[in-house]
Amino acid sequence: MEYVKEGIRFTFEHGIFYYGIFVMFTYLMLIIFSIIEILKYRRKNSFISYDSLLASQYTPGISVIAPAYNEGEVIRNGVHTLLSLNYPKFEVIVINDGSTDDSLQQLIDEYELVEVDFAYHEEIVTQPVKKIYKSTNPVYAKLMVIDKENGKSKADASNAGINAASYALFLCTDIDCILHKDTLLKMVKPFVEEKTRVIATGAVIRISNSCEVENGFLKKVKVPKQFLPLFQELEYIRAFLMGRMAWSRINGLMLVSGGLGLFDKEIVLKAGGYSHASFGEDLELVTRMRVYMEDNKKKYKVKYIPESMCWTEVPSTLSVYAQQRTRWTKGLAQTLWFHKKVFLNPKYKIFGLVSFPYWVFFEWLAPILEFGGIIYYIYIIVTGQIAWPYAIALLVFIYSFSVMITIISVLWDEITGMKYQKKSEVLKLCAAAIIEPLVYHPLVLFFSIRGNWFFLTGRKLHWGIMTRSGFKNGNNKLSNYEQRKL
Question: What Cα–Cα distance (Å) separates residue 354 from each residue in 96, 178, 239, 266?
Answer without folding.
Answer: 39, 34, 18, 26
